[in-house]
User: Fold these one by one.
Assistant:
Number 1:
Amino acid sequence: MNRRKLIKSLGLGIGGTIISTEALANLGEKRYGYTIPQNPLHRPMDKPITAITLGAGNRGTVYGNFAVKFPEQMKIIGVAEPIDYRNNKYAKTHDIPDANRFDTWEKVFERPKFAEAIIISTPDYMHYEPCMKALSMGYDILLEKPIAPTEKECMDILALAEKTGRIVAVCHVLRYAPYFVKMKELISQGAIGEVISVQHFEPIEHTHMAHSYVRGNWHNSKETTPIILAKSCHDLDIVKWVINKPSKRIVAMGDLKWFRRENAPEGSTERCTDGCKIERECPYSAIKEYHDRRSRTKVLDLPADESKHGEVIMERLRTTNYGRCVYRMENDQPDHYITSIMFDDNVTANFSMEAFTSYHGRRTRVMGSMGDMVGDMEELVITDFRTRESNTFIPQAEDVEGYKNSGHGGGDFLLVKDFVQAVAHQDPAILTSTINESIESHIMGFMAEESRKKGKIMPIKM
């Protein structure tokens, strides 16, 4: 019997019995690849659900691609997007008729309801109004995180969702990633005894920080959302989800230390394209990042003709924020951020978000009374204190048909698949990230930002 069949026979999938460390050791192996079985609440569908996408940027495209891969489950029949290039591309991908193409989200709701669901992937500050309007018109909603920029707006959406009985799935995609699903499963079944504390680390990676939170759409917290929500509400949520206890208090520290005008090197200029004397040496050179490496260029809306990419990239660097010096932006997002949380039953957690790393990918340590876990999203190592045996679990997201290229460890498409099922059968229990489940981690984020600014320990009240 091969390893995969053996593990399957021993019940290591979701809901399976967790066999003891001693039994695992007796198998003669210590590394186990695994997949997660299909959600047992899934049922056959008579027809695909229909959806309208508000915001055809990166995240809207990711969720829309599910419909391309699985047309028997979801069909995108409308789009609202003000940028012509993105609107045209999205409409072509999904064969959307001209009558169902809009340049603003408001125009979608000028018509009577004409789909079952709305995908909201607009900028953060544009989540609240379309979500409230969609709920009032009877749409179910797939809502990109964060829910909304303020605590009051989040609570308003929750209240209206409960009043209307509509489904609001928050895109906390890590809850659907096989790696974190397995972590939660093992913890809930006592693999390391009682959870005592958690340490969670999100290395943003230095060029990602420069791209998204210095030059990019989220560079100004007042115009969008604080970085603890814009980038790391995933992380607060996954810590809360894994611990599975109410949060009580939170304290946070951090600031913008490096990406400031006073740190601009001598010889640097307003733009990397303005004859900057240190551009070739700068780790944040826009020319090196976008033109030379062709990295993160989706935001530049490049034409289909690749022969023109170089010319278009340089034009974008001369005219958009993506070509500006990282030391001369109007950015205010902290480039390092730490927070500590007290949960019920005296469980503690520490979370650190760091910009200045050469790598990305979340790292987590969970300390329990009978063992511990150490993982980096590619593998999860569990050590039993009683036997001193260690076993490594390796998520095989690519073994889930169709999800090989799904982001966030396979979580993106697995979320949409659950959302489609929830809408088709009007059963929010199929989802693990309904707004009711996701709201607490947002409150944690708002209170963390209050703590960081005021220098106080903040209570978390639900």
Number 2:
Amino acid sequence: MLLGLLAVTVLGSVLHGQIAAGLERSRVTNSEYEALALTDQAQTKWDGSTSASVDVLNQAARDIMENILSAPGPDPSRYVVMNRSATNDSDVVLAQVTSSRDVDVTAVSDELRTAVSADTTLQQTQVTPVRIDGTQVPAVIVGSVVQVPNAGPYDLYFIFPMEQEAATMDLLGQAFLIAGVILTFLVGAVAWVVTRQVVIPVRRAGEVAQRLAAGRLNERMPAKGEDDLALLATSFNNMADSLQSQIRQLEGLSAVQQRFVSDVSHELRTPLTTIRMAVDVIHGAREDFEPAVGRSAELLAGELDRFEELLADLLEISRFDAGAAALDLEPVDLRSTVERVVAAARPLAERRGSPVRVHAPELPVEAQVDARRVERILRNLVVNAVEHGEGRPVDVHVGVGPDAVAVVVEDHGVGLRPGEAAHVFTRFWRADPARARTTGGTGLGLSISLEDARLHNGWLQAWGEPGAGSRFRLTLPRRAGHSLHSSPLPLSPGEEQ
């Protein structure tokens, strides 16, 4: 409606201006022709006059004025002013003659009087407002010069008021205004119809799409008729059916996979327990065996430990996939959790030659968390940092903010190549598949850590550069159920908090 109103206003203004200009041109042309005929008539009468005295000439001027006013023409509503020319140097001075007391030579502008005096052989025309009978109206003023016997040249001005044209333009303006209002409401009605016929079905399609995205896979659009909107609804429903079928198929495959992993993990526990008992007996008696057999017993025990860790991780992953993981929340000071993790990793750090340094504030760093899960996250981060630290120090930074706590584990080893920070939390992903594992990791530690962080509504993020080391930041809300907006510690060395 606003666009329609703007278009009607512009179109109405252009048409109104063109009509006004056309009426003005027509009025000026007619006035010039009429003024020329009346001027010739007056000059003929003056040429036939034999008056010599001033009084007789004044009476003759009045008679001629009356004849001019009574002369037939296309518009009898005209006024005449006769005034002595600026170039007249005759000693005979006639009185100013006007056709009305309300119109005098002051109605004629100095510019027009100058133009008439400058060229006495041509008519001069001007369109200007004139006050007649106390009312300001636009008028056409045509000026020319007549020669008065014995009195010299006199200016003769014909004033043609454009009252009829002004009334016509007022009527047109009112008509344009009424038509514009009606047209604007018609545009609004058309827009309403278009909205009902087109926009509302499209909006309904958007709402159905949102409900589909929210998981309500049975939502469909009503498809009626054979128009384009009906074709859109049919295509949309076909797409929704296809998506629903594929999603259900994927859900079925995922459920089968999750059940398979869970069942296999549980079923392996029974034979694994028996194997563990036998391996413990063999490992305890390894001193009585030959050196090769004793070493084999040690390797068997180590690989069994690694297998048990893998089995435990698979069970944990299956709990996350099944949505069965739950938090056991309690107030925890992360400084003590970090100390326990660092103490447990110290033997590995000493073997690798990577001292672990802790940078913690003096104030408590408390948050409502599951202590077991947070300790598991930090243990994975610290062990990975020691493994990839290339014998350089590992720094653990602890920070606290108004709404969040954070721990950053930083190593100064090989770092991460571009794009690897987005893959480090992928299950079984390794930055260097050829790199040997010194601690027998399962490849699921960071994946489980990420799930643990998400379970707390927290963040677990990675940053690294080749040769500059890597940083892993764990950020948790201080109060359970709250969302995070920022972290007390930066992720990268040059990042602001």
